[in-house]
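Following up on my earlier thread - several people asked me to post the actual chain instead of describing it. Fair enough. Here it is, all 182 residues.
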Amino acid sequence: MSNKNPEEIMKKASELAAKYEKECTGCAQSVVAALLDAFEVKNDDVFRAASGLADGIGLTGDGSCGALTGGAMFIGLMTGRERKDHKDMMKPMKSYLMCAALHKDFIERYGSCRCHDIQKKLIGRTFNLLDPADLKAAAEHKMMEHCSGVTANAAMKAAELLLADDKLPSKKRPTMKVLRGA
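Reply from S.P.:
Thanks for posting it. Predicted structure:
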């Protein structure tokens, strides 16, 4: 990755998130996978942990958009506190602030972070993806096209926030040259 500048990393994260959402579905996992690939980080555990977060948690539509939670998971992976520091309430502050910025971006773009609200804004209605008839209707309304745009935006914003931070732990950042855009 040392030969990539921040814009290339952000673009790769965005493009991969859209591609993964269209081909594989699972908005949280699509964002996590895209960010793992763009930052060249190997971690199947965080990818696996994102499994149940699609469509507002468990395909309910009633929780935060999986693209948002996937972006927050990756930010936490890169900047969060470790178990040994669990009692230090200030250790995760960097993650809190970055995730708050990601959340703010969602509110500005979509008016909400709740999956059903985003569906209503982008498609005009909501879908119960656990119901076969609604799942078919979602496909007919090209839901994956809309969701792939949301995942692309989430991955790009998460990457932007991480790349703007010059205090990422050295073992987790590509190179200072990449992070500073030199």
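Residues 29 and 50 are 5 Å apart (CA to CA). That should answer part of your original question.
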